Amino acid sequence: MKREIKVKFTGFWSGFQEDDNFILNILSRDFHVILSEDPDYLFYSVFNDDFIKYDCVRIFITGENVCPDFQMCDYAIGFEHMEFGDRYLRCPFYYFVETYQEDLEAAQKKHLGYLDKLSEKTEFCSFVYSNSDADEMRTQIYEAINGYKKINSGGRIFNSYGGKRVDSKRDFEAKHKFSIACENSSHKGYTTEKILQSFAAGTVPIYWGNTEVGKDFNKAAFIDANDFSSLEDLVSYIEEVDRDPELYQTYLREPAFPENVKMEDMQNQVKEFLLSICTQEPEKAFRRSRVFWGRTYQRRYWVYKRSYGVIKKLKKILGKRFAEKIEGHLYE
Q1: Considering the chain, what percentage of its residues have pLDDT values greater than 90?
Q2: Rounded to the nearest 5°, which phi and psi values hold at 218?
Q3: Mean pLDDT of 141-164
Q4: Which of 71, 110, 230, 289 has the fewest CB neighbours in a 10 Å radius?
Q5: Under 8 Å CB-to-CB from 139, ≥6 apart: which residues?
Q6: What is the CATH number of domain 111-252?
Q7: What is the phi/psi pair of residue 106, to 5°?
Q8: Mutual orientation of helices 245-252 and 231-243 as an angle, nearest 10°?
Q9: For 175-228, what is each residue's pLDDT tens digit?
Q10: Domain 3-96+266-327 is of which CATH architecture?
């Protein structure tokens, strides 16, 4: 008979379903999982602060450029290349989130039969972004390359189609030789689905972001903007690759992933990590400090969260400038 465990989810991305997700799919094979407001194990992410309400075993999972705070969580899955006993697993979220499984499979095969797809690449370069709150380098790369040859933008930013977003990012990108795959910020270890989806579409990604991206993807299969001393040098090289069919094809024939990175291995690591947490009785699974400084740290966070909520309300009622004066006095 399966052991019963109570779980709760909070702070996850739009479209995340509490009653149908990758965590439940993993745990349900070994446990009788009950969704509860009084959980034994809380799984949380970055999109709210409600985790602070639950004094149970906390597992932080991020798809954003946010480092785990191990004073607040017991375990975490994130992007940092680090070791922290049994409390941390480094695994990019596209390996275990269902949304990206088709992209993973397509990216694994992108170098197979690439010659048959060359005739489909009738356009130069794609750019599909709608989040304007990103590092300005993404805009600078777009503008620099666009100065050489027109880029087609299928997102809301620099949109080329009368403001309408494309229905299928992969189908749109597949028509292009290159695609701009820029993170919203640069941080060692932070590699998201941007470059994965470019590979899945069969393009040559022009990447910027994680300076250690070669640990996740085959450097011979894409153009890394981090390798160039200036945007002028980057554009000059893209122009060279664009005009040399043989040089361009050297990128297409390379596999997307290094030999030591296997999708199945990464997914198994996630399963083993989550099971190793939940096979422990909750009281034994706690890792964060719950006394003295641990308790003090969480109390301070709770006070800050409540005061921040008050400040937000004051901004609406009294105006931004007056509320900011009050905020300054609060944190003096």
Answers
A1: 82
A2: -70, 115
A3: 94
A4: 230
A5: 157
A6: 3.40.50.11660
A7: -65, -40
A8: 100
A9: 999 999 999 999 999 999 999 999 999 999 999 999 999 999 999 999 999 999
A10: 3-Layer(aba) Sandwich (3.40)
